[in-house]
Amino acid sequence: MKFSEQWLRDWISPPLSTQALADQLTMAGLEVDAIAPVAAAFDGVVVAEVVGKEPHPDADKLNVCRVDDGSGEPVQVVCGAPNVAVGQKVPFAQVGALLPGDFTIKKAKLRGVESRGMVCSASELGLEEETSAGILELPVSAPVGESFRDFMGLDDHTIDVDLTPNRGDCLSLKGLAREVGVLNRLPVAGPDIAPVPSTHDLDFPVRVEVGERCPRYIGRLIKGVDVTAETPLWMVERLRRSGVRSIDPVVDITNYVMLEIGQPLHAFDLANLHGAVIVRLAREGERLVLLDGQDISLDADTLVIADERGPLAIAGVMGGEHSGVGGQTRDIFLEAAFFAPLAIAGQARRYGLHTDASHRFERGVDADLARDAAERATALLLAITGGEPGPLVVVEDNDHLPAARSTTLRETRLTQALGMPLAVDEVTEILQRLGMTVDKRAGEWVVRVPSWRFDVAIEEDLIEEVARIHGYNRLPVRRPAARLALRADNEAKVPLTRLRRQMVARGYQEAITYSFVAPELQRAMFPEAVSPVLANPISSDLSVMRASLFPGLVRAMQHNLNRQQTRVRLFETGLTFRGPLDDLHQVPMLGALACGSRDPEGWNGDNRQADFFDIKGDLESLLSLGEVDAWRFEPAAHPALHPGQCARILHRGEEAGWIGTLHPAVRASLGLKVDALLFEVRLDALTQGRVPTFTPLSRHPEVRRDLAFLVGADLPVQALLDTIASQAGEWLSEARLFDVYRGQGVPEGRKSVALGLTWQHPSRTLNDEEINQLVDAIVTESRQHLGAELRG
């Protein structure tokens, strides 16, 4: 919200400097982003009148003018502006004047004719950024000889306040003045807004079909307006200093009233309205050409202002081109309405728009402002454009208008929150200065909230109001009490940073993807997944919360492949969301993805593509940081992973994640030409470890036996290792797989698995008889339960 300091001081002028006023607003929660002068520095410019004009004898585009600058004698000046005319009041830079850009006016001869000064345009005085086509024309009432800076009030500042979304009541001079008045205990003197008597009884019918979205709609027919009238300079300047460009008097007045009291308005050309003004929802297939020229197709739940022929405007956002006020307009229909914030929220963004009106309606506009805004705008229109006003047409739905709110503030809660007691009278006065009706009872205040403070609803809101008006810097400074005792650290837990460093050491880069993904991608990878759907997503392909890290990693890989990155290694840690919103489980996971060659490009590498066992090795390097023996892999089917190249990851017998190759159907749907290898594991399982303990080294020799088993080709080696561990006794120190063989000498459907088993006793040498008994037990158990045979 940008505003002119002078304009604010017309409402209320506390004895504060500009910077002190800005500091006060900031400390009250209305943060001032910037303070800037409204015009560049210049000196020696006065108001003058053009009293003579003749063509330059040697230049077709120049005129020799005589201007009265109040010095007593007309001054001759050569002027090239096309709009200069006798009788005009203009800004005139006298000889010796200093203009923006450090430009000094001197006596000069232009094409042989003496010129003593310069008639100035707005851009030459730093009032416009773009180069002006002609001189700046001043009102005929401008006093000749007066300093132009004083006449225009250019010793002023624009103050830019960055308001939080809950303070929509301060998106106007009225709201800001109200705050300044509260902070300085001063009355606010705004313009008197009185009902404008109607001069005819004509009106235009209004019909509201959705009262819950538009509980109040006020309209007025004004006949015979002169849209060619000139907007007064004081209004143009106030608009300019608020960042609004002057367009025509009708639009300028609606913008001015919006900035002044906070109520957006709109004016329709009555000649382009047919039958009635209707507030309704758009119908499927309806289109509207907006004031900015966009031709849009309206969604069925968009609130529109329409007539009997079709839509005229998007309610609370922007009007339509064909119904707007133009140069031929003679009669207008003035609209002032209250739209429910939830009815407007998101409508502008849906069509790529953001307007001053939508900005205000989304944050909330005082429901009681519409009538005052209509009367204020009518009075200004009659004063500037003339016309004949009709009666106000008011359509209200009292069941959906905001109801009066009351909130209770307890003394004990206020003291606890502020860290100090405040006098009862001071609290009562603060609340009353804020426009609230206060009923003081024993130990509490019962407060009725004014209509413009729709952000005050609970006790904590009242505490915040009392604190900021009393002054945050007046509250006591107390350091929080904190225990300095060190908390016990779980040494068995594997830090997340260590897992990340391990993945980086394996050649992976950490990715951070959105927590929401495309619904069709998640459906393709997890057909049965249930996760929350966003009510207002930032885009249609990011509308459902992720049930897994796989979709985000696959999209990130696709993004890199499209940019000629043929070797991708990514990992991510983050939450996944499983179940409906009322029974949502947020599960922290670590996921990884790899595609492309196994090794980076180099003279000593090869071009072999990474496969399942490469990424399994990367995962096992993570598992080795914790409880190695607690992990198992078992073949299983997963809808997102390739059949036969997929495994379920178990931790202590419970499912903890998945690993495998991306399913060919998913790969084809994404247009991928390379395999993608993925795994995903629960972080709570990954971070479980154990405290390392020292085991004394045995002084006695090891005993090793190598066993080669013939087993079924589909038998997992882990099953054989589990059998060996159960039968090999407590002194087995290592069981190592060193060969797997299929081919000549091995029957069809079988494979040879060779394992090296090592035993070592801590206090004696094991003999052959003990080892042979253990080997016999291993062979017998393997034959009976796994169908394994020793290879001859």
From TrEMBL:
InterPro entries: aa-tRNA-synth_II/BPL/LPL, B3/B4_tRNA-bd, DNA-bd_dom_put_sf, Fdx_antiC-bd, Fdx_antiC-bd_sf, NA-bd_OB-fold, Phe-tRNA-ligase_IIc_bsu, Phe-tRNA-ligase_IIc_bsu_bact. Keywords: Aminoacyl-tRNA synthetase, ATP-binding, Cytoplasm, Ligase, Magnesium, Metal-binding, Nucleotide-binding, Protein biosynthesis, RNA-binding, tRNA-binding. Mg(2+) binds at D455, D461, E464, E465. GO terms for molecular function: ATP binding; magnesium ion binding; phenylalanine-tRNA ligase activity; tRNA binding. Residues 402-477 form the B5 domain. The keyword Ligase applies. The keyword rRNA-binding does not apply. Binds 2 magnesium ions per tetramer. Its cofactor is Mg(2+). Residues 39-149 form the TRNA-binding domain. Its EC number is 6.1.1.20. One of its GO terms (biological process) is phenylalanyl-tRNA aminoacylation. Its main location: cytoplasm. Residues 698-791 form the FDX-ACB domain. One of its GO terms (cellular component) is phenylalanine-tRNA ligase complex. It is found in: Cytoplasm. It catalyses: tRNA(Phe) + L-phenylalanine + ATP = L-phenylalanyl-tRNA(Phe) + AMP + diphosphate + H(+). Tetramer of two alpha and two beta subunits. Belongs to the phenylalanyl-tRNA synthetase beta subunit family. Type 1 subfamily. This is Phenylalanine--tRNA ligase beta subunit.
